[in-house]
Amino acid sequence: MHMADALLSPVTGGAFWIASGALIGYSAKKITEEHDVMKTPLMGVLGAFVFAAQMINFSIPGTGSSGHLGGGLLLTVLLGPYRAFITLASVLIIQCLFFADGGLLALGCNIFNLAFFPAFIAYPFIYRIIAGNAPTPGKLAAGSMMAATAGLLMGAFFVVFETLVSGITELPFSTFVLFMLPVHLAIGIIEGLVTWGVLAFVARTDPALLVPAKSSVRPRFTFALFAVLALLVGSVVSWFASSQPDGLEWSIKKVTGSAEFSPAGNPVHEALAAFQQKMAFLPDYGFKSAPESLANPESPVNAGTSLSGIVGTLSVLAVAGTAGLLLGRKRNEPKHL
Amino acid sequence: MIAIEGLSFSYPDGTKAIDQMSLAIAEGSSVGIVGANGAGKSTLVNHLNGFFLPMEGSVSIGGIRVNKKNLDQIHKMVGLLFQNPDDQLFMARLYDDVAFGPENLGMKAADIATLVENVLRELNLWELRDKPPAHLSQGQKRFASFATVLVMNPEVIVMDEPTADLDPKNRRKLINLINGLGITKVTVSHDLDFVWDTCQRVCIMNKGRIVEEGPARDILSNRELLEANSLELPLRLQ
Amino acid sequence: MIAIEGLSFSYPDGTKAIDQMSLAIAEGSSVGIVGANGAGKSTLVNHLNGFFLPMEGSVSIGGIRVNKKNLDQIHKMVGLLFQNPDDQLFMARLYDDVAFGPENLGMKAADIATLVENVLRELNLWELRDKPPAHLSQGQKRFASFATVLVMNPEVIVMDEPTADLDPKNRRKLINLINGLGITKVTVSHDLDFVWDTCQRVCIMNKGRIVEEGPARDILSNRELLEANSLELPLRLQ
Amino acid sequence: MQSRVSSIGSALAGQETAAQASPFLGSDRSALLVTALFILSLLSISKFNLPGVIAFGAFPLFLMSVAKGPAGMVTKRLLQISPFVLVMASGNLLLDRSPVMQISGVTLSGGMISGAVIVAKSIISLAGLLSVTLCIPFYRICRALEAFHVPEVLVTQLMLLYRYSSVLQEEALSMQKARDLRSFGRRGREFSNTASLVGSLLLRTVNRAERLYRAMAARGFHGQMSTRHGEKISPGDWKTIALWSLLFLALRLIF
Ligand SMILES: Nc1ncnc2c1ncn2[C@@H]1O[C@H](COP(=O)(O)OP(=O)(O)OP(=O)(O)O)[C@@H](O)[C@H]1O
Ligand SMILES: Nc1ncnc2c1ncn2[C@@H]1O[C@H](COP(=O)(O)OP(=O)(O)OP(=O)(O)O)[C@@H](O)[C@H]1O
Ligand SMILES: [Mg+2]
Ligand SMILES: [Mg+2]
Question: Which residue, B4, B50, D36, D240, shows the most beta carbons closer than 10 Å to its own?
Fold first, then answer.
């Protein structure tokens, strides 16, 4: 499941950008050191393969609905953790840029949730240990099922974590987990089944593909350390940020040293306010339409500002749209000459 | 057998691949569809088996309208030979691939076994039945995908570039096989000599329309007509 | 130019695809290699650009032995045209694809620009230079992959089934293009009319060996010889 | 699933027509950075400030009305909001029922507002992103990424992935079509058959990678796809970025 921009605070999203970025940098370094240029086109087309395989859907027994392959574990079995991580990251980047799956800020989280866990946790510490180098059919089945399911559950758990830490949802932790984990258990079992089916097919027709490249079989100790560090950065920074759901306000507060940013003493705001006084539709920004009594003093919502805000907002949109149309037309004119 | 009326189709990006096209194909006849690269031939083929549903106009086969409701019936009637045999062979063994269709039709196991064996023997593939299709040679793959279609006993067979990758002997074998089939046949091909050998009638497609239709030998020996449509005389006539 | 001596090759599953084969190809000549499906033609092509290294026997090109050490030199000398242009056009736009090879050769940017422009103009592809290869038509793709090979200025060009999927007009264009190239050419094809039009000499392969070699028109008009090797007379002679 | 293919197709189609995201965003590099800033500013708005969020809709609206190109595509994509986002938004709706304001007799709860904020943020951030990325040809996005020091391995990977996704998707669709033609309802679409279908596609893919490697090696490939080093972020880029940052800041402060 893709994490979405709208559920993230900038600090949480940023923390996972850093963690995923570091993992990408490290994996890229490892791959470059290998000097195995033959694998470059293989990674490229396997990334495209994941996209393509996701379009093949199949009926899920007994449910009447259909599912498709995620591909994280499968790629790792074929490519090893580092290359699989980069490949999965590239799939997520394309999904983000052209299909807006999740969004730009959520990209760091998505790479972390959907690529890190299968490549660096589920494969080396579950699949490899169960299946080994020359798996029997039984071990192959057990290894793929367990690893795929575990990888997905870890990812789902992190979706919960990232969302809660961002403080945008009202869902309490327990409800959220109880909602996410069963869904992802089911998705994980299906992922495991298909991964197993595909691996069994390859084992029958072209077993050489399943022999892991020696050098990239397993992240070394330094990597484990690095991964733990990334996890820590991701979670600790986000956790810390959870007390400050509003990132910009939080940083402004740090800069100005006051909780409310008071118009007085803030020249930018003063100037803008004055500007707005002159230009805005509703000169009295604090226009009150709702009875005072209703407004909850605890509530961060100010009815008056909201209403005038809406009108102001609409005018901003109108101005932007009109300006765009005018500028666009002006820009196009020379072309027609 | 096949009736196409006022069919139009555009791809999502706006390419108009089929444009107000009408065509009737009689039962038991063999029709060739020829035309330049990009004329819309493969798009037309995709309408004949219900992979694309008509956006405008209608297609009916054996009196049955091609629409969402009738898809299963259409699939049973129309066998399709893809341009690339790799698209059509997806099981781990050749035998399973050929048995796949009959099994899904719910036939009895014993019947399936005899049927599959007959078809494989007829196409000289019986020895290869346990091979993964990926390990067959290109020509063997082509015959294998032909077997998966023949085993379904279709009333219409539609072929997209059936001779690509075949050596001359296998190509000749395919010609004989096709000419021996008494069903309705639609062949899309750039190999005009093959069309000459297997089709009674020919349609020339250009920019999504049928620009000419007639007896194969008349059309394929009309140099001006062919050249106006990015084609050439069959090599035997050159 | 190309000298093959006692070459043998087996696939890991034991299939002996090339068997004690010897062949010499003169500089500047155009040679066609024909034979049945599975005769070993593609396996041979894979030896000519060093993708497979000889297991037994030797291959040398322009006096240079094909082995691990000389691979870079071999790649510079031999241009390979794949059957499927999608395997060869891998950059995000046509221009970058054609410039890819020269850039890796470490040429100066200005030289690359003129070279690429010349080749693209010569093949009528200049207007398409910003297009992603995925958006080219089949014929355009074929000429684009030709451009990526020509820009490397190879001494030998090797083509595996260059006419597959081309309509007659594009096929004719390709024939003219190939005949206009003065370098050594090796063509593998089932389209014997194409071989007739583009090759001076022809080798017939059968079961991993060269069974006959000689002037194209002699070999391709010898019906008995051809039929003994799963081939037929070119269609124009039928 | 067919919509996926067509959307790749149409994404590509849009890329050919529009040469530049918008003249107002400067180079590709600054366009991408401005978009990132836009999304950061948007997402930093507090969870009850609906007008503030909607005001940021000005950015995609402006870009789409200037460029005229991708508006249709962007809108189409936005209509499929992630169900996950909707679930979370309705979660807020259900859980936070404290009344916060009343507009002409209708009482609004905190959950209504924060839920609406989630949906609005989602739509506006995606619209902002898509109205920029769908206008820049992919190879130029890759060059911009190089300027941002994204590792070469990843840029190469992106280029190849992008190039081959439509090729392989077409193959996958054809194989699925072949299966469905012989499946009659659901019987042939079970998971075991699908596994071998996906497996066959995988083998084809691996074989293709081998040919691709040969084609690359023949043209002197030594591990790098992009030999041209991308331009750096220029002073002009910084100017554009600074200007837009000011605008975003102003929007944040006014609402
Ligand atoms: N998926 C697609 N999206 C957009 N346009 C497409 C798509 N597939 C085909 N086209 C376009 O539709 C037109 C008809 O294509 P079609 O594949 O039917 O041609 P064809 O006659 O089969 O050509 P060929 O002989 O090369 O196989 C062409 O202009 C092609 O570029
Ligand atoms: N990867 C492989 N593993 C095992 N056997 C193979 C492999 N590739 C090819 N072969 C076998 O090697 C022999 C020669 O194959 P090759 O592809 O060279 O034939 P070809 O002459 O190119 O045939 P075609 O005309 O069908 O392309 C065939 O018998 C084929 O089955
Ligand atoms: Mg076609
Ligand atoms: Mg071959």
Answer: B50
Percentage of residues in chain A having pLDDT higher than 90: 25
Give the tokens for residue C12: 């890991």
Mutate to test the pocket of ligand 1, among B15, B33, B45, B210 (most ligand atoms within 8 A of CB): B15
Structure ipTM: 0.85
Top pLDDT among D150 and A277 is at: D150
Does C236 reside within a domain? no
When comparing pLDDT for A308 and C156, which is higher? Answer: C156
Ligand 2 atom nearest residue B139's Cα: 26
Q: Which residue has the tokens 């690429």?
A: C116
pLDDT at A324: 73
**Is residue C94 classed as helix, strand or coil in its secondary structure?**
helix
A interface residues, B as partner, C-beta within 8 Å: 201, 204-206
- What are the chain C neighbours of A208 within 8 Å (beta carbons)? 12
Among chain D residues, CA nearest to B150: D182
Nearest alpha carbon to residue C18 among C28, C27, C8: C8
Whether C217 contacts chain D with CB within 8 A: no
Q: For position C108, which CATH number holds? A: 3.40.50.300
A287 pLDDT band (50/70/90 cuts)?
Answer: very low
A41/C12 CB distance under 8 A: no
What pLDDT shows up at residue A288?
A: 33
Tell me the residue type at B68: K
For residues C2 and C61, the answer to whether their CB atoms sit within 8 Å is yes
Identify all chain A residues contacting C90, using CB atoms and an 8 Å cutoff: 41, 44
- The rounded distance, in Å, linking the Cα atoms of D112 and D90 is 8
Close Cβ partners of A13 (under 8 Å, ≥ 6 residues apart) = A5, A105, A106, A108, A109, A166, D43
CA nearest B132 in A: which residue?
A205
Alpha-carbon distance of B9 to B14, in angstroms, equals 9
**Residues within 6 Å of ligand 1 by CB:** B 11, 13, 15, 17, 35, 37-43; C 138, 167; D 9
Range of the domain at C25: 2-231
pLDDT in tens, A88-109: 999 999 988 888 788 899 999 9
| Sheet with strand C56-61: strands edge to edge | C16-25, C2-10, C56-61, C64-65
Domain boundaries, chain A: 5-288+298-332
With a 6 Å cutoff on the Cβ, whether C38 touches ligand 2 is: yes
Model confidence at C104, pLDDT cuts 50, 70, 90, reads confident
Query: For chain B, how many structural domains are there in total?
Result: 1
Using an 8 Å CB-CB cutoff, list chain A residues near B135.
205
Nearest CB to D190: which of A59, A93, A306?
A: A59
Q: Answer yes or no: is C156 within a domain.
A: yes
Q: What is the pLDDT of residues D159-206, one digit of tens each?
A: 899 889 888 988 898 888 888 888 776 566 677 778 888 999 999 999
Domain limits, chain D: 2-136+231-254, 156-218
- Domain A5-288+298-332, CATH among 1.10.10.60, 3.40.50.300, 1.10.1760.20, 2.60.120.10: 1.10.1760.20
DSSP structural state of residue A115: I
The token duo for A36 is: 């195995």
Q: Is the pLDDT of residue A259 over 60?
A: no
Atom of ligand 1 nearest to the CA of B44: 18
Mutate to test the interface with B, among A59, A205, A206, A209 (most CBs of B within 10 A): A205
